[in-house]
Amino acid sequence: MNPLLWKREHQIALYCAIALGCVIGLFVGFHEAEFSTFRWGRLYCESRNSSCLWLLNGYWLQVMGWTLLGGAIGAALVYIRQLLRT
After folding, report:
1. Is the pTM higher than 0.85?
2. Which of 10, 9, 29 shows the shortest CA–CA distance to 70?
């Protein structure tokens, strides 16, 4: 079951599922972040420092982990669907 050998529409569905999973994972990552100072719609720092050093201290790694997990779940769902159809 090589995804590169699937029909074009099934490959597009796989890419769309990965993208949608990444977006959902990104929002979950923002929501589940350990930093309670994050505000939706803008970046917020308690220190009023425009560089926001806490963004560089593992925050984005945590959010990107959720993003990658969401993409993997989306890809797995489409892959399992294709396996069940064959």
Report:
1. no
2. 29
